[in-house]
Amino acid sequence: VIDLNIPMGETPKWFEGAKLNFAENLLKYRDERVAFIVTDEDMKEETITFAQMFEETRLYAAAFRKFGLKKGDIVVCK
After folding, report:
1. What is the pTM of this model?
2. What are 46's strand-pairing partners?
3. Which superkingdom, per the lineage (predicted)?
4. Cβ atoms of 2 and 13 closer than 8 Å
């Protein structure tokens, strides 16, 4: 994982060259377990399940396909 030959004063580079697909890892579950707990500025908590996250992602993906977006295109969501 890290280069143990790096001196203590230097910050090691973890998994150099590795790529991680967050979507692939987060969307492999589709059940009612809690995926995220979101807390706003007023300390109000909201839970989001894996099923909810999957459904939201499915809807966004369908909309992106409808508009002709493809891998490599840049999208900004607000």
Report:
1. 0.65
2. 38
3. Eukaryota
4. yes
Identify the band that residue 1 occupies on the pLDDT scale cut at 50, 70 and 90.
low
- CB half-sphere exposure, 68, CA atoms < 13 A: 0
Tokens of residue 38, six digits: 């979101």
Q: pLDDT for 6-57, tens place per residue?
A: 887 887 777 778 888 888 888 999 999 999 999 999 999 999 999 999 999 9
Distance CA(66)–CA(40), nearest Å, equals 32
Give the separation between CA 49 and CA 52, rounded to whole angstroms. Answer: 5
| Burial of 54: CB neighbours in 10 Å, binned 0-12, 13-18, 19+ | middle
Which amino acid, one-letter code, is at 14? W
DSSP state for residue 31 in the 8-state scheme = S
